Amino acid sequence: MTGDNQLNPITYIPDLSPSAAVHQDHFIVCGLGSLGQQIIVNLTKFSFDSFEVHIAGINRHPVTEWEVDNLSNMLSQPPIIGDCCRDRILQEAGIDRCRAVIIVTSDESINVQTAIAVRRLNPKVHIVVRSSRQGLNRLLSRQLGQFVALDATELPAMTFALAGLEDNTRSIFNIDTLQFRVVERQITQQDPQYCNLPVHQLHRQHVRLLNLKPFNNPHQPIGWATTASSMFHRWQPHVRVQAGDQVAYVEVKTLSHSQIINQPKRANAWSNLLQGIGDVIDGEWRRRLRAFWRRAEQQSLRRMIAIALATALILWTTGTLLLATFSTAEISFTKAIALGAILILGGYGDVFGGFEESQAPGWVMIVCLLIATTSLLMVIGVLGLLADQLISSRFEFLQRRPKVPKENHVIVVGLGRVGKRVTHILQDLRQPLVAITHHLDNPALRNQIPLLEGPMLQQLQEANLSTARSVIAVTDDPVLNLEVALIAAETLESQDRPFTPVIRTLSQLFSDNIKSFLPQARSFSVYALSAEAFAGAAFGENILGLFRLNQQTILITEYTIEHGDTLNGKPLAEIAYGYGVVPILLRQCQPNRQYQDYPMPSDDLRVHMRDKLYVLSSINGLRRIERGEMTSPRQWLLEVEAPLNPNMASEAGNLLAKLSNLELEHCRRLMKTLPNSLQLALYDYQAHRLMQELKRFVPIRLSPLK
């Protein structure tokens, strides 16, 4: 027999039968605004059959309007009205039996106070807080433990920025020195890397296929679903990509030292030494030195003035007491005060009369000379700093501001937290842009990006709207954002080119309504996007970011494997195809507690205690991992013939054990009794790889069982 047969598609039903025991988890959501309501919707997605999710909601005032129909019925009890910082309110919500508390009120101070109160009442509960104060978040995480802080407004910034570009990139994110890029594009006939290749060959060393839409029927999955996920692994391994098909994939590359921006560094002496060496090699030390000197100058001016004033007062007092007490001439205390003032202003000769004989002791004259000299040096120092600041500000004022681009640029309307983050992302992508703001709270931005200040609607034409690539309206006013998009659509209505305004809203209902009458616009609710990240974090997952793909929110999630974890001990093939996720990085913990990285890891690698696994997943995938609910693999019949070279059988046994869940001894016994057959439980990609690898050693036939 030969192994050249294709995998024949058959339809099967995933084994999702519930267990007899019912597992219950209780959650508390503090703050029932738009974000809180969206979080409740996403938490209920984790409730299914034997896994029940009970949710209690707390709000300071009665909720007069629910954004989602029947949302109040998703709560296990009527909303609790009161201050979530109060012990009585938290106890009424069930803090003692709670698994996680999600604190998402609009006041970050209340969020922090509530987090501290929650930790006091329940030392083991998991806390998820809405907060943008990164420094405080790190401190609270170390002090409180089991604490996660997310910024609901900045999480979707990448989505807004890439939506405005309207290119193939769907997301870019970094994990330490690795940069991942999610791309979605249409395959052409002149694309040899993808066109007419089978799907399994698109899983390469640095690339993983995420989605495939056939050109002839883009709304139907290819073949049958290998998992219950509606996003990943919906195609058979032997299906070929044709011209016109749309593919989405994630690729990885290693960043050079100079490309690593805003990445957390491990605080130890060895890493600091390597950092310093890298800075010297890249010339980064000059920029760091200049930045340090500028910061020191800004901080030292006020400090220097305060020190100078305090020193002058001390010197004045000292000189006055010396002249009044030890001078042989009869002078009043009032005159001594005046002479002390003259002394610290540099009038030493006026006090002691030049060549004339002084009536003060010699040691008094020497001390007064030191007072006058010290005072003079302090005055020179302060005047020098003031002059330097004035000259520097003059040169900064005369610096040439970046010009507004003429064409093919992105217009960012609004420079709040979201707008600043969007401009930063666009700058990293080297995309020409111009920002429009009514009020600028950071004057330094004027010299960093092209900037227009004033009434936003009036500044649109000054921003060369007619030749712009897109408009991203991300002000805090959703109606103003809509007005900007409508003006842009009217201005470019006569032009025959694609133009997609991007609109930030605060309500998913508003976003849905915008799409109905302005289909060319891309409207996103920041709270609807962020809510899935908050819901995932409530189950203890570390959500690194999110992006949109195929009309779904994909979460970038980090798992640290612990005792009792549903992922512990499993091969990546079972995790990927059983749960419907895409592993993109495995960090295996070594005996010396160092980590070895495997980007785009092989399916046969296993995860163990203390390993870190990074995956791309929908909220459905997170739910399945949380419940340990895997799609059952297909049953296969493996028939093995005796090879011409008996030595090949031993290699085949080792390979069979590596690519399946069988024990090594069992596989070796099988290879010693050829010809023989064996029933295996494998997912399709496992089976396809096993067939391709094993047939190089022994003649095989692998067929699915009905």
What does this structure look like?
The chain is an alpha/beta fold. The protein contains 20 helices and 24 strands. The strands form five sheets. It has a six-stranded parallel beta sheet with strand order 3-2-1-4-5-6, with helices on both faces. It has a six-stranded parallel beta sheet with strand order 13-12-11-14-15-16, sandwiched between helices. Strand 1, helix 1 and strand 2 form a beta-alpha-beta unit. The longest helix is centred in the middle third of the chain and has 43 residues, at 284-326. The protein is elongated and about 125 Å long. The two termini are 21 Å apart.
Cα shape: elongated
Mean pLDDT rating: 80
Q: Nearest-angstrom radius of gyration?
A: 34 Å
Q: Please work out how many helical segments DSSP would assign.
A: 20
Mind summarizing the main beta sheet?
6 strands, parallel
Topology:
Elements: E1 23-30, H1 34-44, E2 51-59, E3 80-81, H2 87-92, E4 100-103, H3 108-121, E5 126-130, H4 134-144, E6 147-150, H5 157-165, E7 169-175, E8 178-186, E9 207-213, E10 246-254, H6 269-282, H7 284-326, H8 333-344, H9 348-352, H10 362-398, E11 410-413, H11 417-428, E12 433-437, E13 451-453, H12 456-462, E14 470-473, H13 478-491, E15 502-505, H14 508-517, E16 522-525, H15 526-538, E17 542-549, E18 552-560, H16 572-579, E19 582-589, E20 595-599, E21 612-617, H17 619-627, E22 634-640, H18 647-659, H19 664-672, E23 676-682, H20 684-694, E24 700-704
Parallel strand pairs: 1-2, 1-4, 2-3, 4-5, 5-6, 11-12, 11-14, 12-13, 14-15, 15-16
Antiparallel strand pairs: 7-8, 8-10, 9-10, 17-18, 18-21, 19-20, 19-21, 22-23, 22-24
